[in-house]
Every structure is written in structure tokens, then in C-alpha cells.
Amino acid sequence: MTPFDLRRHLIPFRSQLLPHIFTDTLVIGSGVAGLRAAIEAAQHGDVVALAKEAIDHSNSSWAQGGIAAAIDANDSPQSHFDDTLRAGAGLCEARAVRTLVEEGPAEIEQLLAWGMRVDRNAAGQPQLGLEGGHGRARIIHSDGDATGRELMRTLIAHARATPGIRLFDRCFGVDLLSTSSGRVTGAVTWSPRYGLQIIWARATILAGGGAGQVYRETSNPRVATGDALAMAWRAGAWMRDLEFMQFHPTSLYIAGAPRHLISEAVRGEGAVLVDRRGQRIMAGRHPQEDLAPRDVVTRGIVEHLAGSGEPCAHLDARHLGSAKFAERFPSLASMLAGYGIDGGRDLMPVHPAAHYTIGGVRTDVDGRTSLTGLYACGEVAANGVHGANRLASNSLLEGLVFGRRCVGAALKDSLPDPVPMHIESRVQTVVAGELDLADVRSSLRSAMWRNVGIVRHGAKLADCLDMFAFWGRYALGSVFDTPEGWETQNLLTVGHLMTRAALERRESRGTHQRLDAPEEDSAGPGHIDWRTGVPASQRHAVGVIGAAS
Q1: Marked catalytic residue, from 202, 216, 285, 294
Q2: Which of 48, 324, 465, 492 has the most CB atoms in a 10 Å sphere around its CB?
Q3: In this predicted model, what pLDDT tens digit does every residue of 507-532 receive, in sequence order?
Q4: pLDDT for 233-276, tens place per residue?
Q5: CA torsion 332→299→133→145, rounded to 10°?
């Protein structure tokens, strides 16, 4: 084993000694993309859908901002298309974006038919909000700032009422299984009730979300540890643009408190970013000022804080007043009240935080990965919709559209039933002292925030790789038997891959900012695609990064 082997299975096992489950479609992940895929797949066969924790505990449930879709008579898919490409800083794939904006409105109609509640105006039509980067109001909300919660309630209820879907909650996807020819045939999973088991599937859909927990400052829930990304990497799938992590400009900044997201919709209602003296931060920085694309606003805050020495910015929504703020943003108002803050009367301390993993498993417009039998959708996938910077509120729509399309692709591919194989995973271990997993996680998250955060430098990225090599020599050479250990190994894997990709992209583009390469390079690398097994000496010749080792 190399000192830092990112390719092996996490655990030793013999398939013939484990319980077996058979299904037509295995969905790994229970957010909006995973549940939409499961519901669609159940129309054509049996489905097993895995939730890492409780079925409603995902990034999707936390979404405040809403769902972007061109459903208004004064809007159009073309306008939504143009806004998405503009935000993506030259790296969006036009066909994927076109698919999103043209098929999105039908997904909204489907949600309404399934019983999703949305905020409506006096005429009974959906009340549409405005968010950063959008030229028109097209954001659908539920209960002001609880869109993700209502969306997930709708999907969970429909999934539970759909025959043929088995929802396995608190079931951890450990590793993908594949044949010698590279076809994915299912996964090894673990649950506290049944332990290790194998799920054989004709088609496997990865919808396990992103890796926000690789950073110390993040708006993501505890479960976002990059497990699906790491699984795909170990299986040999092509990855794309992992250096692009979107930092949300406004998370609550209070010492010792979680970095609660403060929705972009607050700025859509007229709130502005100010410093402690009340001076506008975004004035004059961009034509859309506080409603500029997220990378622009985040960069504006960071530059201002660097020049002023202040620890945070402030969001000023005092023009709304206490009553209107609480009416428009009830969940946010309740959360802020717990810290003694009235969002309609007080300035809200904010700071950027890691929010959305833009890069991921490379797919085509139908969710196909480079491995036969493996599909990906949602935050784990890099299908070209987001480019180098995600347009606000496109992610929930992406999960709906491409979750459904993955199933269509699997049906077209006419995959045969998997033939159960005898698989033996032998994991070589190193002799190491007892590991403090909490300390390893804390150290790597701090290192990622300092060195691979909002503003980067080649020398710091190289130093960070050295740190990963040191931690990986022990943590990746150990065998664990609980999710805490596997999550730590996945965080190390994904953090290392992100850092390698960031070092390779020698330009500043979208969310990716390099102090030693501050300009966008029009002749630069474009997308950075990579997988295991590609020699490092070939990465420039073939346009990919070599296998990390």
C-alpha cells in the first residue's frame, strides 16, 4: 500500500459471509435528488433507498432559499438559461443548463400535484422571490424560508406511499461493488441493526450529497462528509472540477454557534451588507450590488474584512421591521431570537461559509457516470449545470430534474440483473498508535479552511497536501468498524482530492480564487477531469490529474 492510498475498500470483507439483498435500483442518498430518483424508479421495478441518518436529515431539508424555475408569464426558460450561464463563469455545459430550465417547470407542477405547499400571492399564484444572480423574480418558497423542509416532507410522504420503495434509514453506504470489467453491481452497507450487508442492484444511483463538512466553517449538516464522492473515486469513476466549492456569503457568525445559513432571500427583500459603521460593502462592486452572484458577494466581504480587520460583516434588514421580518422569514426569525437577535431591528453578524460542492462525479446530461451501472445526481454529480459558480436556488431544481433523468437513462441502458460474485476485500493496515478521530477531523477541517478556502495560494495548497499525506499515512491505513471512522477516511480522501485539483487550476474563476494567479485564464484547463490509475506524468498531456498516491 502506498503511504496515502485513496483507492482501496475501507473495510475487509468476504461477500459470501454477509447478508444479501437484491433490488432493481439502489439509490444511495435520501435528499431531493435521491427521493425523486426513487419515486421514478419505482414505476419500473423494486427500489432500495438509503438514508445515512433519519430520512429527513439531509442538506435538502436545510434549504431556505427556494426553487428557481421560469413559471411566470413574464419569465422564460431562456432568461433562466442566460442567468445560469452568466453565474457559471464560462464552465457551464449549455445542454445540461438547457435541460434544467426547460424541464424544471414540469417538475414544479408535479410537486404541486403531490401536495407541496408554496407561498402564494393574493391572486392565488405562487409568490416568486428574487435572489442573487437572477435577472427576474422566479424563486418559489414555502413558509417563507422553509422550502427545503416542505419539499422533503412532500417527497418523503410520496415515497412512503409508493409501492416498491424500501427506505432504509440509518444505513451507511460504505463502498461500491463492481466487476472486473468495471460494471457497478451494488454496494456494501452498514447499519447498527444489521451490521454489514451487500445490496445487489441492476442500477445504482449515487445521490449522497456533498462534502461541506471538510471545512471548519460550513452551513452543511453533520452528515455532509463526502461519502458518495469518496465511494465513486475508489470505484474508479471519473471526477470533475472538485476545486470548486461554493461559499455562501451570509452565515450567522457568533462565537461557539453553528454557522446557520441566512438565506439569500433576505437580500432579495432589500437587506444590504454593511460594516460595523453602517457603510455599504457591495456598493460599487457590481451592477447588482448585494444581489450579485454568490462568488462576487463572498469575495467582496472577504476583501472588505481583510482591509478593515473586522471579524465579520453585518446584514441590515432593519427596513423590514420586526413584524414583517418575522412574517416573511419565520424560521430564521425564530433561530435568531435564540441568540437575542431581532432580524428586523438588529444588524445580523455574518461571514461566508462552505455551502455547496460544485464539482463531483462526472456525468452526462442523463446522469450516466463513466462506470456502467452507476448514475449520479444532485450535489454529488458534476453534470455541467453549475459551471464554476452555482446560481442561487438552482440546486433543488437540479435534484428534481436529473434525479428523474437518471432513471430514464438506466432504463435505456437495459442493464442485466447482477450476478452475485464472491468478492474478498483484503485491506492492508499499518502499525499505528490509537487514533483520536475527533482531533484528526478538527485538524483537517481547519487546514482546509485556512489553505483551501475562499482565497488560495499555490504554496499553501502544497503545504496542505503534505499535511494530508501525514494524516493519511495513519488514518487511511487503519480499519474502522463504525461510521465515525469511515467518515473521517472519506473526509481525508475528498479533502486531498479537492486540494490537488485546486493546485492544478492555476487561475481565478468563479468560486476559485488564487492570490498567485489572480486572473481568469481564457486558455486555461477548462474542466479538470481525473480518476484513479492515470499516471501523474500524463495529466497535462491528457488534461486530467493523475491518481493521488
Answers
A1: 294
A2: 48
A3: 999 999 999 999 999 877 789 998 98
A4: 999 999 999 999 999 999 999 988 888 989 888 998 999 999 99
A5: -10
Q: Name the residue with cell 426547460.
A: 102
Round to whole Å and give the CA distance between 514 and 503: 9
H or E element that contains 228? helix 227-235
Cell numbers representing residue 433 in the block:
498508535
pLDDT at 212 over 60: yes
* Top-level class of domain 249-352: alpha beta
CA-CA distance, 106 to 101, in Å (whole number)? 10
Class of domain 13-114+147-244+358-413: alpha beta
What value, to the nearest 5°, has the Cα angle with vertex 397 and ends 396 and 402?
105
**Distance between CA atoms of 490 and 510, rounded to whole angstroms?**
26
Helices 330-337 and 321-328: angle between axes, nearest 10 degrees: 120
- Section 173-196 average pLDDT: 93
Asked if 294 is an active-site residue, the reply is yes
CB 70 within 8 A of CB 80: yes
Neighbouring CB atoms inside 10 A of 137's CB total: 14
The three-state (H, E, C) secondary structure of 372-385, written as one string: CCEEECHHHEECCC
Would the pLDDT of 229 be above 90?
Answer: yes
For 176, phi and psi rounded to 5 degrees? Answer: -80, 150
Give the phi and the psi of residue 89 in degrees, each rounded to 5.
55, 40
In the chain, where are the structural domains located? Answer: 13-114+147-244+358-413, 249-352, 428-520
CATH placement of domain 428-520: 1.20.58.100
